[in-house]
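Hi R.,

Here's the chain you asked about this morning:
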Amino acid sequence: MLYLVSIEELIKIARKKVNCAYAKYSGIRIVAILITASDKVYHGVNIENASYGLTICAERVAIFKAVSEGEKEFKLLLVYSPDVIPWPCGACRQVMAEFFSPDTPIIIVSDAEDKIYTKELRMKELLPFVFKIKE
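And the predicted structure, written out as C-alpha cells:
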C-alpha cells in the first residue's frame, strides 16, 4: 500500500513527539501516528495519571483526535516507543477494532536497548476475535 508519508518519515515524527508523552509513573513513553483515509496524519501520546485507571494510551488519543475531527476511516497506525516494544493494550485493540478494517496495517516500532524492532501486522492478527455489535 502506498502512503503520502513514508514509514521512515512517520518514525521520525514519532521520535520527535515522544517528549510530549506524560509518563510520570511508568517511565514508558509511547507515540501513535495515525493516517486517515483522507491522508491526514494524527498523533497521540500516552498520558498517565496518579489514578492509573484514568491513564489513556497513545493509540486511543490519536484515534479519538481523528474521530473528533470527523475522520472515521483509517489506512494505518504506527505505534512507537523508545522504551519498550509497544504492543497495544486490550482497550486500545477494542477501540481500534471499532474503527479499523480487519486489514488495516498496524506497525509496531521500538528502538529500546539500541535495537530497532519493527513488526507489521493487520488488525485481524492483533485482535482475531473481535467483539462487535451487528450493524
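The first strand starts at residue 31 and ends at 36.

Let me know if you need anything else.
M.
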